[in-house]
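W.,

You were right to be curious about this one. When I first looked at the sequence I had no strong expectations either way, so I just let the prediction run and decided to look at it fresh. Below is the sequence, 748 residues in total, followed by the output.
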Amino acid sequence: MGNIININNNWYYKNNYETGMEGNNNFQGFEKINLPHANVELPYNYFDEKSFQIVSCYKYPLEISKEYSNKAIYVNFEGVMAYGKVYLNGQFVGEHKGGYTPFSVRVDEVYDFNSEVNDLTVIVDSSEREDIPPFGGQIDYLTYGGIYREVTIGIYDYLSIESIKVETEKVLEEEKQVKLKVNVRNIGQYSGNGDFSVSIKEKSGKELFENSYKVCINQVKNSYEFEIEGLKDIKLWDIDNPNLYEITVRLTTEQSLDEYVDNFGFRTAEFTPAGFYLNGKKIKIRGLNRHQAFPYVGYAMPKRVQEKDAEILKKDLHLNLVRTSHYPQSKHFLNKCDELGLLVFEEIPGWQHIGNNSWKAVAIENVREMITRDWNHPSVILWGVRINESQDDDEFYEETNKTARDLDSSRQTGGVRYITNSSLLEDVYTFNDFVHDGVNGPLRNQKEVTGLDHNVPFLVTEYNGHMYPTKRFDQEERQMEHSLRHLRVQNASYLDDNISGAIGWCAFDYNTHKDFGSGDRICYHGVMDMFRLHKFASYVYKSQVCPKVEPVLEPVTFWARGERSIGGIIPLVIFTNCDCVEFEYGDKTVKKLYPNKEEYKGIPYAPVILDYSVIKPEEAGSWGMKWEDLMLRGYHEGKQVIEKQLSSNPIPTELYVSADDLKLSAAEKDATRIVVKVLDQCGNLLPFIDEIIKIEVKGPARIQGPKELVVKGGEIAFWIETKNEPGQVEIKIQSQSLGGKNINILIE
């Protein structure tokens, strides 16, 4: 039976590799660390982007019992940025180009079972090598460095199951089918009889299918296919009910026993010229792009934090799709997308630049690695097989498409471009449409983009972004226009039946090169900042959900008469999913306001827009009058479901502190986010307060980043990271004017 062992704790790290380090087990000068690990912890902004582009050295004292001396042993890496060279006891055992896809190296052939400890060394080159995608040109994001994902040891019989591929068929019929492909690793060149037993269960444990298949295994054949028919009472996977099933495949021979377990779902997904269909039902895609970047530690966040991003996108912003821009992302993120019902457009690494033939060969291998890792995820509905925003290269992209289709004919391919009249070699024309500049647009007709005389499957994959960068602490007018640009594009997408949907740029702000962004190494393109804190634009998306799930009422204002040019708060945009909103200004005005469905006919929940066509200037506090409080009340089906009060005289009243999680794991590196807000007497953020927050951590944890933070836009956040020890962690948050708050986290 295969045995998978996590080896993420107690590595040794040195940030400058020196020749010969791979040939000894001397840990002097090395720092003890746990994975995931960033090779350099960076400032939030204004840093030298070359500081992490180094060649570093990781070591691990590998101990494997003699009982496994007759097994095949692999070290499995989920992600090493950007080139990893692996040695065991000074002997080279493997290498990998590319930081976003997994790889394995076999070590049993050189492992010394007579030695108590074997020295596993990984030389990590995190420079931007021109022979590895996405490098070779300029790229609008940072790749950071290190062994930033998990590592395991895999111990197998010489005949074992390498992977399985599950394809669901006849999904919309009463009796459904599964086409199962089992890929085996026959190192010992076994020939003889074998037995594959297959079981399918609901996640509750209820068994739906069990059968065994006798086969003749030989040295030439490395894959076996089985048709499973007559499956009844199957629940489909969709965005509202993401039903998952567990499949277990067991291989038994007279010499070996192995088992492979994975999750999958029954669903159909098809992009057509008339839009996107999930399980035969038309769905308008409403999504955002995600970079997997975080403050200070870059990509090196553990499972819990990766999963939290999926929860933010699905449960907070109420999206139905995320694009993994511009590379395959954490398996934990994708697993959570499966569980939550969040669709995924996954693509290979790259940004505009196409390299030489050896570079292209790595990119084609990235296609294979991405698909073979993720082909059983029901959330993944489209493979991105083109370098983001690159020029046409038909020979290259014919090969990437062929690779994808040969590996997985059950999904369509896309290729993101920003050029018009581009060669359509993929199944879906995926296009970054930046036409909307506040006047033009919001979206182009697809025939204008494709240059074709007929409609094709079409998806808008980016909009806004660099056209209107906006900080969370920017002036109110800019934040309103930022929000409206997202709203206009989404509305236009819903109005065009020939567009499958639109994916905005982007979910979260991210670090970038000096050639892009605001000069401080940050692109402020997100609808949330790097700490996953809301900008007003995020409420365009958050409000697109039934109020029975979550009522939303968010006016785009700081509620100050002199914040905007000329003064006042008109027009006032209120993002809401309520049927109507009651507007009460001081004790003078009570108005019933309704969503502006005339101007925004497409989007499911139009905003309320208060202007002088529905209210007199004096009813909203015209210049020179006394400035009053505002009360908003939202109604659904005749009942009040939410309210929000804005003070005309806000003062610091409360230091609000909350943690995403109050329990963490001591087994391996874990982390959780803590949010700190400075609130007024009505519970609203004080957007322009400059408050210094001091943080003290007692117990087996540490803060990522500095221990003193400045509140921006009324709030700030930080992550607490465990040290793989159980215990109680006390976190003291002290402010200048509002005293302190304590929060306790249990690590067990």
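Here's what jumped out at me. The chain has a mean pLDDT of 95. And, maybe more interesting for your project: The CA atoms of residues 83 and 97 lie 5 Å apart.

Coffee later to discuss?

I.
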